[in-house]
Amino acid sequence: GWIGPRIHERQGVAGVTTADKARLRVGMVGYAFMGAAHSQAWRTVNRVFDLPSQVSMVAVAGRDPAKVNAAAQRLGWEQAVTDWRELVARDDIDLIDICTPGDSHATIALAALAAGKHVLCEKPLANSVAEARDMASAAATARESGVRAMCGFNYRRVPAVALLRRLVEDGRLGEIRHVRAAYLQDWITDPQFPLVWRLRRELAGSGALGDIGAHIVDLTQYVTGQRITGVSALTETFIKRRPLPAESSGLSASAGPAPSGPPATEASASPAAEEAGIAAGTGPVTVDDAALFLARLEGGAVATYEATRFATGRKNGLRVEINGSLGSAAFDLERLNELEFYDATAPSARQGFTRILVTEPEHPYLSAWWPPGHLIGYEHSFTHQMRDLIEAVAGGTDPRPSFDDALQVQLVLDAVERSAANGSGWTAVGHA
Ligand code: SOE
């Protein structure tokens, strides 16, 4: 079981005790961008929320000994190890947090669940439907012995998004007719931006589609409570080859001399390649730069989705607008403390979009933070995610998004790729 020895200790302010709290002992795999975001959330969550268990940041795993040691110190982990299998095998770890590229999610999650560890796995759940199915069925088996699995679609935990969900649930938008979703970024617009792992299919599974399109698929299915039933899609790769990175990190690598080993590369350009403008030290981009699709939702709504890394000037433009029979709502991640709401039932003289500042104690998650009117940011979504996960684990309930929810997203991604390959033909999405 996950409950470690009960601790009897005094912490924090003299005279105030948090004794008797069970521990949730975490091992994290990967320590780059997402590992840093998760570490901050693990460090913070018990200091903000009153939770049934106390997080212990037991160990972080990474392949490079010097780097993982430095990361452990910087991010607040008690130990560093160079093999994630060690985390899975240890008795003093209850939960494995997977913050690696998609190509290792399935292997790590399956091993962790088989060892009876709870799992938090970053999005997208896997690089293929087959892997996602294996993971969802392993999670179903593990659930029988009280082991929990969750996928890290963190934007569900932005208070304004949770408020939007509440408005839909309360019927304030009425019957949903339109969903308009876009996730717009521009960080690879420069053709000299190197071929980082997110641009390689064998590591990332897909491009803008799985990295950011997956977010708007999950978010809209969550907010509407409706599954996407079919799609018509197109994808595009604008820049076909890119310089090999000096060092492959997710978002911030610089171009430089080729590292040893893969990716598949033109080690030295052939005369034909040179003529075609392909330099030595570049490699092929094997994922989509942009993915667009039309969709139908099971409740009868129609939807558009756009995911791109080429929307010059848009840095983290996750936008969702929903139009219903009784009203509309719109969210933009670049203004994440706000939600626009239009109430079509208000007297017509007073109708119009209202900008709700989502900073009040009555709003989801916010009573634990600052006095009314004070703002929060990107990192809070991860702290909220950890809060919900800890409560589910301690309370013996299933955290959402479950691996089944994430498999449902994977089925949409797969249908989008099949539709795009098939000249945008209508492609049904199966049920997880
Ligand atoms: C890069 O596109 C990225 O960091 C994604 O990987 C995240 O999932 C998204 O939240 C922000 O953009």
TrEMBL record:
This is Gfo/Idh/MocA family oxidoreductase. Residues 163-329 form the GFO/IDH/MocA-like oxidoreductase domain. InterPro entries: Gfo/Idh/MocA-like_OxRdtase_N (IPR000683), Gfo/Idh/MocA_oxidrdct_glycsds (IPR050463), GFO_IDH_MocA-like_dom (IPR055170), NAD(P)-bd_dom_sf (IPR036291). Pfam families: GFO_IDH_MocA, GFO_IDH_MocA_C3. Residues 24-142 form the Gfo/Idh/MocA-like oxidoreductase N-terminal domain. Keywords: Oxidoreductase. Residues 246-276 are annotated as: Disordered. It comes from Rugosimonospora acidiphila.
